[in-house]
Design a protein that fits this description.
This is FAD binding domain-containing protein. With about 270 residues, the chain is of the alpha+beta class. About 35% of the residues lie in helices and about 25% in strands. The longest helix is centred in the last third of the chain and has 22 residues, at about 245-265.
Length: about 270
């Protein structure tokens, strides 16, 4: 690693000040991406601002019709929370599929959405559930927050403080994980509610998480796995790497979507 100054603020104001003191300062959440990047000497921040000591960034609550989860809540807490299991069980199930126990005990919701890895799980849930990402400066709908591969609408020094998930309707998540990393090679989150049907896909596209409009339209006409027969994303737009071709990932998306729809249809 390169040398850096380490800060562990106790309040959000202290964190903001530490980040503002240097253009090269970086916030540290769970460190599941940043720490390996530092070890490989691919990043050289002047300062690391550890957000783990800020109580205001933790907590899981229900406020009216919203599930509000603090940015520094760890994956294992989402997976095992009775509140999440009661009000949004699909999100608890998704969190339980992230990585392995070591990753789930260190990684955080805020760190995941801020990093926007194209194979991360939470962005699909945020997009399908029409979640709002709350920062220390503003509130952003998920559709405006995720802007591309490893890209978000976050400005320099801006800190994710919480994510608000609207409640109501039914949802489920189906994932085909890479057997080594447990990252999604294709993950499909399907929600059906008063606002219609939303299908969000992660792990497959070169552009990162996306809503699959063709699947949403087909399911709006008839909610069943058969409605998706013959549908799959364009292979040319999918990731092609040592783990699989674009056509392979497109097929995985189609299969995961059918499984998700079948699960929801069977639950009624």
């Amino acid at each position: 690693m390169f040398a850096f100054a380490y800060h562990r603020p106790a309040t959000l104001i202290e964190a903001q000040a530490a980040l503002a003191a240097s253009e090269e300062a970086k916030p540290l959440a769970g460190g599941q991406t940043l720490i390996p990047t530092l070890k490989q000497r691919l990043a050289s921040p002047s300062d690391l601002v550890d957000l783990g000591g800020i109580p205001a960034l933790r907590g899981i609550t229900v406020v009216q019709d919203l599930l509000v989860i603090g940015a520094m809540v760890r994956h294992v807490e989402v997976a095992t929370s009775p509140i999440v299991a009661t009000h949004l069980p699909a999100l608890a199930a998704l969190a339980g599929l992230i990585g392995d126990p070591a990753v789930r005990n260190r990684g955080t919701l805020g760190g995941s959405v801020a990093n926007n890895d194209p194979s991360a799980d939470y962005p699909a849930a945020c997009l399908a559930l029409d979640a709002v990402i709350v920062t220390d400066r503003r509130e952003l709908p998920a559709g405006d927050f995720f802007t591309g591969l490893f890209e978000t609408a976050l400005q320099p020094g801006e800190i994710v403080t919480a994510v608000r998930f609207p409640l109501g309707g039914e949802a489920t998540y189906e994932k085909f994980p890479n057997p080594a990393s447990r990252y999604a090679m294709a993950g499909v989150f399907v929600r059906r509610g008063e606002g219609g049907i939303r299908v969000a896909v992660t792990g497959a596209s070169q552009g990162g998480v996306f809503r699959w409009g063709a699947a949403e339209a087909a399911l709006a006409a008839g909610f069943s796995p058969a409605a998706l027969d013959g549908l799959r994303p364009e292979a040319e737009e999918m990731i092609a790497d040592i783990h699989g071709s674009g056509a392979y990932r497109a097929q995985l998306v189609a299969v995961m979507a059918r499984r998700a729809v079948a699960r929801l249809a069977a639950a009624r």
